[in-house]
Amino acid sequence: MKRKLFCLLLSVLLLTGCRNQDKLALPYTNTDGLNLSADTSENAPDFFASDLAVIPDELNHMSDPEITAESSLIVNDTDNKVIYANNVYERLYPASLTKLITTLVVFEKADLSDMVTISYNASHITESGAKLCGFKEGDSIKLEDLLSAFLIYSGNDAGVAIAEHIGGTIGGFAKMMNQAAKDAGAVHSNFVNPHGLHDDNHYTTAYDLYLIFHQLVQYDKFLSIINNSEYTVTYKDAAGDPVTKNFLTTNRYLKGEEKAPEGITVLGGKTGTTNKAGNCLILYSKDKNNKDYISLVLKANNSDSLFSQMTDLLKMIK
Prior knowledge:
It is a single chain. With 318 residues, the chain is of the alpha+beta class. It contains 11 helices and 9 strands.
C-alpha cells in the first residue's frame, strides 16, 4: 500500500509539472514555501525522503567542463543525495539502457527457471549494427541464462525472446514495460520494444532511468548478474544437442579497460549505443565507506568520451 501511494503521488507530481513535449519538467514543484532540496531535508515529503533523491531545478543544471554529454547524473543511493545533475528531465533515446526496464519486468513477472524457446522473430533481427547473441530458431535456454546474456553482452535477440516468452508479443510486453515504469514513478518514458533498437516513439529521461535502476538494485540476482565480466552458458539447439557460448561484458570497468577513481568499486551497470541515442552508460558503485552510488551519462559523443565522463562523475564522490 505504501509503495502504491508513493507511485501515485509521484506520478501526479511528475505529470502536473510537465512543461512541454521535448523538455520534461521536474518531478514536483516547490509550493507553499517548502524548500525541497536534494538532500531530502525535513521539509521534503516523506514519500521522497524515505526512498529517493529529489532533484530541484536549481540542482538540475550543474556545469562541469569535463561533463559534456547531453544528460548526466550521480546520486548517493545510500543517503539519497544528489552529487551532480544536468538535464535529467530531458527526453532522450535510451538505446540498450532499455534493457533495464525489460529486466525489471522479468523480476516482477517471470520465473528465472523457465525454459525459453527462441522464435523465428528473435533469431532473425536484421537491423544493421544490432548486437546479437547468435541464438537460432528452436534453441531452448533457461530464462536466467538468457537474461544474463541479455544484460552482460547486450544481445538484442535475447530481448525479443524474453519479451515473447513473458508478454506473448513485443507489443504485449511493451505494455508491461510501460506499466512497470509507471509503477516505479518513471512516467516520462515510453517503451515500444525490449532492447532499445531505435524507434522515434521509444524514449525516457535520465531521472526515469535512475528510478528504474533504483528498483532493480534491490534484487540480489540483478547485482550478481551485472557484476560479471563474462558469462558462459550451455543450452540445447532445436535438435536437442548442447551448445556452449561465452559472452563478454560491454562494461570497460569490469574488463579492466577503464579504471575507477581510487576508493571506488564499480559493481556493474549497463551500456547502450545507437546513432540517435549516442553513447550511454549507467553504473552502480560503492565507495570505501560502503555507500552505494548510481551514476548515469546519456548521449556522449563516443565510447571513449562516455567512459571518461563517467570516471569524472565518479571522481566527485567524496
